[in-house]
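Box 3.1 — From sequence to structure: Small nuclear ribonucleoprotein Prp3 C-terminal domain-containing protein
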Amino acid sequence: MAILPADMMESQLSMIDLLIAMFPSASELEIPESTREGIDTLRDWCQDPTETPTGIPSSLSLAVCLAVTTEKTIQVNIKISLQLENPESKEPLPITYSLRQPEWMSKAEVANMAAAMPPDDVFAAFEYIRDEAMHFLETRQTLTETATRSSEPLVRVWFYFPSLSTRGKRDDLVNYASDYSLTGFVLAGKPGVLCLEGISTDIDAYMSFIKTNSWGDIPSHQKKVSERFRETADIQRVFPGMEEITDSLGERSGQRANRGDMQALEVWLKARGLHEAFENVIF
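Predicted structure (token representation):
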């Protein structure tokens, strides 16, 4: 192979200059001493290309440490060719790059990422690597959280409302429950009852969301809800999803037909093995 002509060599050196500008810190860009010496020699030669320099390597090597997060980086090893594939070539050999395995990825995971890297465009490769590495870390974090959550015990928590009537607020209690992997039921009226099945952290997060967002327009002194009972021993889900049972539960009484039939609720809960909860929540 023949050494690049001076104009092509300047183009390759300009690529290195661009990388130095993009990654100015020594922690971001690693340039071996042999590469630095080669760069200096080639710059001098490009200024006066009358004599072909000796001892020029076939390529210059450097390494970019791409920041994925504040704590995680991934190293991209880069080789910039200094030779023509044949004397008739009008372009230098393309820049090649590869990934060094970080401690937080397996060899197979790195190989899978590298297999889909954009070819012949190191800057597109940088963007791809960052995006894929970030996605990898997010996916792993989700799997870790899921595994942790799955090991947490289920609880069943009962909340009591002196009054629960607004349709939109009731709908929110039902509609947002699935976002927190919760099951249970809502009973509107005077009193109102909310039953939630799930892990404690999800229930706490759900109630915090409801109070902050769904009830954000309600004065704090009117957000009257209290936890009446929490079941924690060997809990299994009784409810397949989250539903409102107000309109399907017995007769409704009271001047404005908003006073729930507590006897019907007692029967309904007893049929589901939850009679103890009724006694703790209503009385």
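Summary of the box: Residues 2-147 form a domain with the Ubiquitin Conjugating Enzyme fold (CATH 3.10.110.10).
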